[in-house]
Design brief:
There is one protein chain. By secondary structure, the protein is mainly alpha-helical. Helix content is 51%, strand content 5%. The protein has a two-stranded antiparallel ribbon. The C terminus is likely disordered.
């Protein structure tokens, strides 16, 4: 990451700033891979964290509006500034909805360099969470997701 997130924001600093406050009672970390594996369950966890009761009648719409397909088709509604930052608009921001694509795009050397940089910039624990969504304390695994609620 030679530009470190330029011109929008410094990538490593953004991740570190969230990591530093991960234990606050109004912060919940959600990893993309967990959303991909079981979006309905993750949405229920988020609702519980935010103390929102989900009406069963609303559940199909919640799942529809949270789906990759809906977000891609309605990208200008769900992307910062309607995609004005990207030459090709909002639809390139919501790209393929696939996790781990770097493995088919980057060389082994590029992946290794990124992983070393991540650990150097973020520390082993945060770099592991960023990669896998898992944080370990002894033999106990704790999962986090980024989200805020008011306290």
């Amino acid at each position: 990451m030679p530009k470190g997130g330029f011109p929008f924001w410094p990538f490593w600093e953004n991740v570190k700033s969230w990591w530093e406050i991960r234990d606050l009672p109004n912060v919940m970390f959600i990893h993309f891979s967990d959303l991909k594996k079981d979006m309905p369950n993750e949405i229920r966890k988020i609702a519980a964290f935010l103390e929102i009761n989900i009406n069963d009648q609303d559940w199909p719409k919640i799942l529809e509006y949270s789906s990759f397909q809906w977000m891609k088709q309605n990208a200008t509604k769900s992307v910062p500034l309607g995609g004005a930052f990207w030459d090709e608009g909002a639809k390139v921001f919501i790209n393929k909805g696939v996790n781990g694509r770097w493995a088919d795009t980057l060389s082994d050397a590029d992946c290794s360099e990124y992983e070393k940089s991540a650990e150097l910039e973020l520390g082993e624990e945060c770099a592991d969470w960023l990669k896998s969504g898992h944080q370990w304390f002894g033999n106990k695994q704790i999962l986090y997701v980024i989200n805020l609620k008011r306290i």
